[in-house]
Amino acid sequence: MNLFGDAAEKSRKELHKVITETESLLAYLRETPDEKIVPSFGFSAQELRNLKQAPEKVKEITDQLKRLKDAVKTENPFAALSEAINDVFRKAEQGKVSPSRCV
What we know:
Elements: H1 12-31, H2 45-52, H3 55-71, H4 78-93
């Protein structure tokens, strides 16, 4: 899954693909029991379990996805989404979130 690439360089077709992939990721997290999670979407099984167990991170992604959908008509809607999602991971790497809650 290419959620975290350089969003500013994406075409509309690529934007729609990322929207679809993000929706699929969120549905997978919502519908899959922890013990059945397998590596997918470019994440390890553990990363996906950690993400699923961090509702604040899922909410951030969901909120950014909504903003992206709302902004898809604009010139460059992906820059903000990319930055916000990358910020979630930077915070986790910097230890601003407890290790059990990191993605």
